[in-house]
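This section describes the prediction task in plain terms. A model, or a person checking by hand, is given the sequence of a single protein chain and must write out its three-dimensional structure as a string of tokens. No templates, partner chains or ligands are provided. The sample shown here is typical of the held-out split.
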Amino acid sequence: MVKRTSHETSLCGVARPLDAIGDWWSLLIIRDAFDGVRRFGEFQRSLGLAKNILAARLRNLVAHGILVVVPASDGSVYQEYALTAKGRGLFPVLVALRQWGEEFFFEPGEPHVSLVDTVQGLPVRKLELRAEDGRLLRPEDTVICPPAQG
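The expected answer:
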């Protein structure tokens, strides 16, 4: 089996997190965790993923501080997985991926699940990237800068 290249020393904020979330199963596990899935068996049923692969992905997410293992909420001997603050920080990433997928991977009018706010029950507004002064930014309005030396 080919060993994946680690990006843990990369200066790029896109490359470095890929060691933790760079495969589709990890993102789907995190998605399910946001939807309230907490137990190994629940993840397995939801995703239809082989137990060994699920166990490896969960271990990786725990090792990277995205999930934490906690005692079962019902007081049983089982353990559950809960999102940490680092894991909850992925919410905008998943929303952006969801909105991108809805825009480019569904035909107009094709049904798909929707993300709605729990207060109004309305669809969530499309994410926007804004400058410090409030201007809407496009890719051509930004540049990647190397870290300051010294």
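For orientation: The chain is about 35% helix and 5% strand.
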